[in-house]
Amino acid sequence: MPIEVDGEFIEVDQDGYLKNLQEWTPQIASAIALQENIQLTEDHWEIIYLLQAFYGDFQISPAMRALVKYTEKKLGQDKGKSIYLMSLFPPSPAKIASKIAGLPRPANCL
Description:
Elements: E1 3-5, E2 8-10, H1 26-35, H2 42-58, H3 64-75, H4 82-88, H5 93-100
Antiparallel strand pairs: 1-2
Helix pairs in contact: 2-3
């Protein structure tokens, strides 16, 4: 079922992940976040852009453990904690944040 953003319909899979990653825009991210009952703040955007950098480096979406370690390495110990990420992207930060960032579903997330 596609999502509508600014009058355009964007194709997503049955779980809400973009079918065409090149279609991602901040407006699409905001629309997906609203579907997940998340109001994006600067803290959310920091993680979204971090995830996109991870994907650019490794060509995969990180599972939770890799996301926590990468976040700690790039943003420090305070933000590199699963509880912090959970507060931003409940109930599954790796899955929800990847979806909002326009990335594929992480392979190791159920």
